[in-house]
Amino acid sequence: MSDKNERLPIKVVFSRKQDKTKNTGGGQTKFFGEVTPELRKSLSDKFVSLNKYYSKNFKEFPEVPCVGKIKIKNKAIAKSHKPNKIFNPDTCPIIGSNTFDEIFIKLTKTGIDTVISEMKNNSTEKFKSNLTVIDNILPYTSEDIFSEFSKEEMYKQINSGRPVKLKLFNFDNQQDNKNSHQNFYRLLEKYNLIDNLEEISFSDLFKTFKVNNCDKNSLDNIAGFSALKTISPIRTINTAPIKSYSVKSIDPSEYKKPGKSEYPVIGVVDSGIKADHPLLEPWIYARESFVPEEYQNNQHGTFVAGLIQYGDIFNNFKNRSNQKFKFLDVVVIPNDDPQYGKVDHLTEDQFIEIMNEVVPKYSNEVKIWNLSLGSSIMCKNDEISDLAVFLDELSDKYEVKFILSSGNYNTPPFRSWPPVKDLGENDRITSPADSIRSLTVGSIAHKDSDNSIVKKHEPSPFSRRGPGANYVIKPEVVDYGGNLDSEWSCNNLGVFSLGEDCSIFENIGTSFSTPLVTNTYAAINNSLDNQDLLTSKALLIHSARLSNSVKINKDEENKYYGFGHPNILPADILSCRNDKVTLIFNELIKKGEHLELYDFPYPESLLRNNKWYGEIYMTLAYDPPLDPNFGQEYCRVNINASLGTYKEINENGELKFDYSGEVPLEKNWDSKYEKERIQNGFKWSPIKSYYRKIPRGIKNQDWKLRVDFLNRNENNTAKQRFVLVITIIDPEGADIYTDVVNQLRQNAFTFNNLKLKQQVRQRY
Predict the structure, then answer these.
(1) Is residue 674 very low, low, confident or very high in pLDDT (cuts 50, 70, 90)?
(2) Which residues cross the membrane (predicted)?
(3) Is the pLDDT of residue 550 over 80?
(4) Ordered DSSP codes for 357-378
(5) How far is C-alpha 538 from the chain's CA centre?
(6) Strand 477-480's sheet: what is its strand order?
(7) How far is CA 258 from CA 280, 309, 380, in A?
(8) pLDDT at 554
(9) Residues 76 and 42 in one domain
(10) At 226, is the secondary structure helix, strand, or coil?
(11) Which of 146-155, 432-441, 610-619, 748-757 has the lowest mean pLDDT?
């Protein structure tokens, strides 16, 4: 008889030719109002007004397009009815968007004239339908340019000597962009600022510049440039720890040193790991320092590295990997404590320059990077932050994964739990925690006391919340980062790690929950025979849902918890049991088709008294193409999965299928967001979680798995990879693993064991 707790291999299942089905035709043309002569005149008059508004720009910069804003009716948002029959390459094409109900169009004198003529005369059904989508037509004004910081606030910034960040529109046309950049340089020359201009490589998809020594008059004139998108200050990057406490000294001889084995390398981008540290120096793979020694304070970086390597030992954490790592120590954050020594700061442009140097240099050896740092830039609903865009593009270019802290809310009084103080947006995650490609980590408490602000397993009082831009769940996961008492002290409530000497210190922060997740994620990835960052991400988040170590009771709460706490041994994440079977689908899906498995192998042993039972977890992960020019529509592809039951129906001699999805999408955003915004936001999230427990049974019908692929309106991606992890559990503990494997064989599926470096026992 087999052991119930015996570890069995996860099965990787491949779709068959018959599982790939072509999509059928689209829907009918939809109207959102009546097309009347009055509507045509009203809309065309707005373009006449735009022509007048930009007459000075067209005269001063005749080669540079201007930008208009099209407001979309709320009821048209969910259907993605972009008015691209009106705004196309022959008129005023769509070049981006901001919120879901606002798009940007490129304006030229010729384009405006053509639109006015078309609005008066074009009577095709699709064109008329587009007319009914439009709610308003507006110019792009200085309020938009100064949306992050008002003009008056920017005056204060430049008066204090801070540099200015200027971002230009991308017109999606090589010649237009060239003209825009050349005219921009001439404008800067006119105000004697060209020598103070530096380009910042945030993205290949838009141009950003840093300007030093800009005065009020120059700023006002630059703000009138036709192609200017935003003006904002250059921000600083920091670690922002709260005061730490010394606990005890330790004996380095009691801790393991590297053997002859090869160890995976983790990049630690921080304040630096203390050189010659007895416990950590033997694990240094390489060191890249960008901070002069007299400005270094290695406390934070040493604490972070100590948690990656010894966090389980110092804190007696259970269900942790015993995997050891080597470190690429990247010293970027200078000391900011005058009592410690000389102080300095790191600006976002300096950070970008450093990362553009070290990531390519080590990208073959270092695939996972811990960034327990952040900024004061609050993430917004309508736009991904520049730093997040930069990390996303760096991730794609060099095939690496960044693990980011969600940021600390450091302003007393701190949030309690459940949240009773309305903080508004003040405890929202900070940039670059909104990075889509990265894993963002929040903090929960692992200790409490009679006077602690929160209890064990509740979100730490300082941990910031999501969502990210376009309502994507951020943070994705949480781990232990400490607690505070009513006196705002972390004494006996924090996490333990290494100080600069051989002492254990106590501290708190999302900076310190992040390295614990880095350890788990790296252990999962390193366990795979063919290391794969996307599969590892899917498995990590899947394990957070399976662990059930935190209870998410209300819609508001998952803004802090994300998908949960991955508190499961990596060996258990990467295996099955008799009563718990996990399948992985690692597939490419093409435009114009969907996957449909009509004989999904749901365990027949879960059919009892003619009803299906069981508990089902599904995690879907994919890396969609991204475009920062489209704001809330940054993610350009949507993948959705559905698992349910169906029955065949003969309708007038035609065979049809009556399908019912049985495993719902977990989308617990609160009700203050309009329905269409949730549908168009969370729906496009590149990580989705589905769950269903069936205690009362559902009727006996066959099971089907379906996966759909959808492009954004202006996007034309031909194919998209996804990873879907499905776990089915029998709460009564019966052997369902054998059942599923037998069905896979009977239905002619091709499947393999998930290949691990240390393979679990193979029974089938």
Answers:
(1) very low
(2) none
(3) no
(4) HHHHHHTTTEEEEEE--EES-B
(5) 13
(6) 284-289, 326-331, 265-270, 366-371, 401-405, 439-444, 477-480
(7) 10, 12, 44
(8) 62
(9) yes
(10) coil
(11) 146-155
510 vs 429: CA distance, rounded Å: 11
**Does residue 327 sit within a domain?**
yes
Pairwise CA distance, residues 304 & 269, whole Å: 10
Residues 382 and 486 in one domain: yes
List, in order, residues 6 or more apart from 156 with CB less than 8 Å away.
none
> Six-digit token pair at 533?
């960052």
| All residues at 6 or more sequence positions from 743 whose CB lies less than 8 Å from its CB, including other chains | 599, 601, 603, 604
Token readout for 279 is 């416990």
- How much is the pTM? 0.95
Domain end marker among 140, 166, 182: 140
Nearest Cα residue to 184 out of 161, 208, 216, 164: 208
Q: Which helix (H) or strand (E) holds 354?
A: helix 348-362
DSSP code of residue 381: S
- Which helix (H) or strand (E) segment holds residue 315: the answer is helix 299-315
The structural domain count of the chain equals: 4
Return the number of other C-beta atoms located less than 10 Å from residue 147's C-beta.
Answer: 17
Residues 183 and 275 in one domain: no
Residues 267 and 368: beta-carbon distance below 8 Å: yes
Helix (H, G, I), strand (E, B) or coil at 215: coil
The pLDDT, as a whole number, for residue 763 is 46
Same structural domain, 212 and 320 = no
Pair (613, 551) in one structural domain: no
In angstroms, the CA 373 to CA 634 distance is: 23
Angle ∠(385,475,367) on CA atoms, nearest 5: 80
Query: What is the domain extent for residue 223?
Result: 145-234
Same domain, 620 and 673: yes
Per-residue pLDDT tens digits for 593-648: 999 999 999 999 999 999 999 999 999 999 999 999 999 899 999 999 999 999 88
Residue 258's identity, in one-letter code, is P
Strand order across the 654-661 sheet: 20-22, 593-597, 702-711, 637-651, 654-661
Beta bridge partners of 69: 104, 138
For residue 3, tell me if it sits in a domain: no
- Catalytic pick from 460, 511, 605, 642? 511
User: Cα separation of 455 and 10, whole Å?
Assistant: 36
| Between 183 and 759, the higher pLDDT residue | 183
Q: Residue 218 catalytic? A: no
Q: How confident is the model at residue 665 (pLDDT cuts 50, 70, 90)?
A: confident
Residues 343, 281, single domain; the answer is: yes
Among the three residues 114, 140, 166, which one is the final residue of a domain in this structure? Answer: 140
Residue 609 tokens, joined: 């008294």
| DSSP state for residue 275 in the 8-state scheme | T
Catalytic residue among 44, 81, 129, 300: 300
Q: How far apart are CA 102 and CA 77, in angstroms?
A: 9
Per DSSP, the three-state class of 209 is strand
pLDDT tens-digit profile of 287-336?
999 999 999 999 999 999 999 999 999 999 998 988 999 999 999 999 99
Token pair, residue 38, equals 């009055």
SS3 124: coil
Whether 176 sits among the annotated catalytic residues: the reply is no
pLDDT given for residue 743 in this prediction: 97
Residues 606, 483, single domain; the answer is no
Q: What CATH number is given to the structural domain containing 707?
A: 2.60.120.380
Q: Which of 270, 349, 392, 739 is catalytic?
A: 270
DSSP 556-598: GGHHHHTT----S-HHHHTEEBTTEEEEEEEEEEETTEEEEET
Question: Residue 308: what residue type?
Answer: I
CB neighbour list of residue 158: distance below 8 Å, 6 or more residues apart: 164, 214, 215, 216, 219
